[in-house]
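C-alpha cells help. Consider this.
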Amino acid sequence: MTEDSTPFNRADARIGIALGSGSARGLAHFGVIRALVEVGIKVDIIAGTSIGALIGAIYAAGKLDELETTFQAFDWKKTVSFFDVVFPKSGLIDGAKVSELVRTHIHTHTIEKLPKFFAAVATDILSGEEVIIRTGDVIEAVRASISVPGIFTPVRSNGRTLVDGGLTNPVPVSVARSMGADIVIAVDLNHDIIAGKNFKPMLLPNSTDKRLPGIFSRWMGEYHQLMQELKDKLLSREAPGSAQFKRWLSPEPLPSIFEVLLSSINIMEARITQTRLGLDRPDILIQPPLGHIRFLDFGHAKEIIEIGHRSTVKKLSTLSQTAAGFLGGIAETPKKTTSNRKE
C-alpha cells in the first residue's frame, strides 16, 4: 500500500470493511474490529461473506459486544446444539438455530433499517453468480451467506437458490467498494489453511490435540456422548438415508464425507481468495494466522479473537504516519451521505 494509491488525503473518505469467510476462524473478526475501535477508526460500510456476514450484520446493528459474549461462552455442547439435523436431499442442517442466534441480537427485520450500511454475499448455486444482498430480510441474507453446500440447506429467495458466498467472493472487497467505500480494510481468514502442516480441515477436534489439554480433558467425555447421539440419530431406522449413511462408515482409512466436503471447500475458497485479492486489492489487508483452527473450533473463541486483535494491531503499526494519522482522525470528520441513514 502506498499513500498515492489510497485516498488518505481526503477528509470525506468513507471507510469500508470486508469481513471474509472461514467458519470458526471468523471469530477473529471480533478482535479485528476491537483493534480498529481502539485507535479510533470508524467503519461506515460493512460487506460480509459467510461468518463475515453473520458478524457483519450484528456489527451493523451495533450489537457486536453482546454477540462476542455469546461466542465466548461456546463449548462443544453449544456448538453441536446448532446441528439441527434434518438430512433432506440438499443439506444436513436447516439453519433455524443459527437464524435464532442472529435474531436475538438484531431487532430490525430489514437491512435498510440497520444503523450502518451492510451487504451480505451469497452464491446462486444454479447459475454460479455472485449475489450481493443489500435489501430485504437481514436474517434471510445472513442465512443465505452462511449456507455451506452440503452442510446447510440452501435458501430460496426471489427465484434464486442461494448458498455460501465464499464460493464466489470469500473476501468481498469489491462489494465494499461498490457500496461507496473509498478505503477498504479486508480481513482474509483463508490465506494459510492449506499451507502444508497448517491444513486441518476436519469438522471435529482431534482428541490428541495438545494445544488446550485442560479444556479438552473437561470436554471430551461430553463431546463423545454428543457425537454418539448425533451418529445414532443419523443411523436410526427412522432417519432418511440411514442405510446410505451406514455404508459411509466403512472401516477403510478414508476421510469422512464431512472431511472431504469441508476440505474441498477450504481449498477452493483459499484459491479464490488469492485470485480475488490480486484483482480487488484492499487498501489494508489483515491476515490473521489461523491455519490451525478447524471448521467448528468455536470453543477456542478467546484464542481466535486474540489472534485477530493482535494481527490488526501489528498491521496498523506498519502503516505510514500519514495513513495512520488519517485513519485515526477520520472518525470525527463528517462523511458524504448516500442514503437517509444518520451517520
Remarks:
- The mean pLDDT is 76.
- The longest strand covers residues 117-124.
- The beta strands are 15-19, 45-49, 91-93, 117-124, 130-133, 150-152, 155-157, 160-164, 183-187, 284-286.
